[in-house]
Amino acid sequence: GGTPDKLRHVESMSELPSGAGTISGISAVVLGESLADEEHDLIFPSAEFSASALVSSPKQYKEMYERSIKDPAGFWSEIADAFYWKEKWNPSEVCSENLDVSKGPVHISWFKGGKTNICYNAVDRNVEAGSGDKIAMYWEGNEPGQDGKLTYSELLEKVCQLANYLKSVGVGKGDAVIIYLPMLLELPIAMLACARIGAVHSVVFAGFSADSLAQRIVDCKPKLVLTCNAVKRGPKPILLKDIVDAALVESEKNGFSVGICLTYENQSVMKRQDTKWQVGRDVWWQDVVTNFPTKCDVEWVDAEDPLFLLYTSGSTGKPKGVMHTSGGYMVYTATTFKYAFDYKPTDIYWCTADCGWITGHSYVTYGPLLNGAAVLVFEGTPNYPDAGRCWDIVDKYKVSIFYTAPTLVRSLMRDGDEYVTRYSRKSLRVLGSVGEPINPSAWRWFYNVVGDSKCPISDTWWQTETGGFMMTPLPGAWPQKPGSATFPFFGVQPVIVDEKGQEIEGECSGYLCIKKSWPGAFRTLYGDHDRYETTYFKPFAGYYFTGDGCSRDKDGYHWLTGRVDDVINVSGHRIGTAEVESALVSHPQCAEAAVVGVEHEVKGQGIYAFVTLVDGVPYSEELRKSLIAKVRTQIGAFAAPDRIHWAPGLPKTRSGKIMRRILRKIAAKQLDELGDISTLADPGVVDQLIALKDC
Ligand code: WTA
């Protein structure tokens, strides 16, 4: 329930950030069920929190924000100066960009001419500054009681050993390395080792299937694949090496063979003698890496040299290799981490994301380490052995910043408060949310129950493409509204546009775009700059188009409303409906498939698939299962459809385009909101679909 204390009553709202308009009509701030109109529910950081915050008032934010917009070069240069650069960037080229396709190719660059290394800045620099004995990473295994830790000096040694090994087998600057590992410390170590020698890492989430892994291998042609033999997720062992083996066979069929598969022996789960092995290709990590020196020279790279590729979903079946570069990404992830979580050197920071996603790149590995933070890496799942695991971990490590996803909040909320209140959680100071819009009731539960009504929630809106936070509360700066990502980060200019690409001001809703670049922006899609321009810069001339819908309320707060393209967000995992469709139609008995997102109590969105079978094939439970299995093997278990809806025909326009709008309404059971169906080639299919909804 709501705890209305610890809230400050405000007299004057004139201090709110620019673009915030004026907040009027709010005479008191009340938290809790009594307030029907959730949007006007303002929640203030305590005076004590604000007093020691990095940004402690709307006024201070406003000044910094305005400077960042008026003088981006000056603003970001000052911040970048705090890092180590082997060679300083060219002061006249802090930022150069063209986001307007009509004026030539789209390009973005930051700190041109500068030479640096993100691994050096994240690890060596902290050791050299005297923090060598500080814990860089705590590790909590799948089983309670299984744990480990590394100081910054130890981390440096591990990174150097692996970097030396990689060099010894010929991996060098610009070479791709695929990392397919669970949340062992070896995963961030591997990312850092690649960065140290200028190799380009591409982490593939270890929940992806062999087919998906193969697709990525064929696309980026890595010199080497890094994996481990097996891992346990909850009670279940997963043989990762078998998946990699299958992927390597598959990629060979598609014309690319990987020379080395460096395999970490995860001894507590599986012994090496039980692991399938291909002599000549497979190498045990423990046999080779530890023989290498613990010092390794840094490869100084250009600020615009690629740092990593991360494949993400778009509106076609082929995943996109989002490319980030070194200098701007470094400055941006470090700065966003620091301000959004109001980072203090004494903090113990835990982000529940996996390094297989962008959140794990920017806010498990790079952002926190660049700040010299102590980061907790968790291998397990939040409900194993029971739903209290997260709070057990919070108490064990005295976690002060806890960053997670709404889907986890909702699932733990369903398990009941007792799992939370059984633990003290008194170390918690700041909470964070990412991945999808957080619904106000989950926000409140997170705030009141988990955070004991004292921890601000940083609801960070951003994307794989943006590298770091784009909109987020700064915890000590201004009041929050449950479910709103509030205001832009420094240097970010969000605009809401209508269908024609016209900016709309004031209270409104429309398509969310960004004007001007920011240091953490992605620079291209690997091997497909055309797709980069077409997807992101052509829809609304002169802007980066995010793919998200957004509304702005009368107080200037931003409310993300979800994707407006064919991408869905399932448990915070981004999935292209086209990818699921292509997996379904690869089933020999499936003629056609159309996939839409449907509201799901825990996952945020669930996957709802309309499937047309090959003529004469009867629908059966067995077939339903085998269709779902097909998606699991082609993409991964996290993309398995929640519902299969038999569709003798799909609603199509006369030109053959599937009208997903109608399918979304049928899936949501909003049958009175189907709208105009007269333009369909055969309007009769709609009734047919509705009649079959329960098959
Ligand atoms: C959604 C994850 C609302 C959004 C970092 C975006 C959010 C997509 C939020 C990117 C948030 C992420 N509020 N929506 N706080 N955070 N999203 O690339 O639809 O996996 O476009 O990056 O997630 O997903 P991605």
From TrEMBL:
One of its GO terms (molecular function) is ATP binding. This is Uncharacterized protein. It comes from Triticum aestivum. Its cofactor is Mg(2+). Residues 129-517 form the AMP-dependent synthetase/ligase domain. It comes from the Eukaryota. InterPro entries: Ac_CoA_lig, ACAS_N, AMP-bd_C, AMP-bd_C_sf, AMP-binding_CS, AMP-dep_synth/lig_dom, ANL_N_sf. Keywords: ATP-binding, Ligase, Magnesium, Nucleotide-binding. The keyword Signal does not apply.
